[in-house]
Amino acid sequence: MEYYVDIADIERVRAVNDCFPIDGFTTNPAILTRTDRPLSRLFGEYRDYVRETGQRVFIQVTAQDADGMIDQAVRLHAYFGNALVVKLPAVKAGYRACKELKRRGMAVCVTVVHSTMQALMAAKAGADYTAPYISHIDNIGADGVRCVDEIVRAFDRSGYACKVLGASFRTVEQVDKLAIVGCHAVTITPETFDMLIAHPSTDVSMRGFDAGWREKYGEAQITDFLPQD
Ligand code: G3P
């Protein structure tokens, strides 16, 4: 499964990347309103980051019409290069832009997906990714995890190469369940990365190792016992 950090602050992306095997980061218009940094400076830092790491950056268009979306996507791609995956909303204009941008060979994610049909249409339009909003789907009385399960199966049956990028999580359990149903990618907050690997029993065992070691060997470290050849 691919893992992305869902955040605008590149320093926090770097902090996650220091510890976890991530594939890049994702933004959307709402996320970009939550930073006080000037966006023009931030975008320069995004470009430096993807050039350094070879990872992907997902950026969503803000135009409402297809021509505007296509124009923005082309300009974003000219700036970020092939590291960019352009996010297009799952509305008519977004699907039209998707078809055209795929014709031009750009990587595309159809986002703000709330149903299996929206995702299937994205795959048929050639999207590389489609992003169902898990918690939003739960909040409208449906089941986000089941929706992803259906999408993954439907893509398999139809032979679509489109990847499902699960987004909008409230719990670690949702991420866990998406992995089990074969979701191809998730985008999550830095805090969720920490929670994914946190386990109290691991902490208990670690304290036990440390106490036992110190009791017998004090402050010495394991490498202190390597023979000097
Ligand atoms: O990637 C989509 C995500 O940022 C949406 O999050 O908080 O609106 O569910 P939220």
Question: Can you offer a commentary on this structure?
Answer:
The chain has helices spanning 10-19, 29-33, 39-53, 66-80, 92-103, 116-124, 134-139, 144-158, 172-180, 190-197, 200-217, and strands at residues 2-6, 24-26, 56-60, 84-89, 108-113, 129-132, 163-166, 185-188. The chain has 229 residues and is an alpha/beta fold. The chain has one domain (2-198): TIM Barrel, CATH 3.20.20.70. The protein has an 8-stranded parallel β-barrel, surrounded by 7 helices. α6 links the parallel β5 (108-113) and β6. α4 (66-80) crosses α5 and α6 (116-124) runs parallel beside α8. It is globular and about 70 Å long. The N and C termini lie far apart (44 Å). The mean pLDDT is 97. The structure holds SN-glycerol-3-phosphate. SN-glycerol-3-phosphate (G3P) is lined by residues 6, 26, 28, 31, 133, 135-136, 167-168, 187. Residues 6, 26, 28, 31, 133, 135-136, 167-168, 187 line the site of SN-glycerol-3-phosphate.
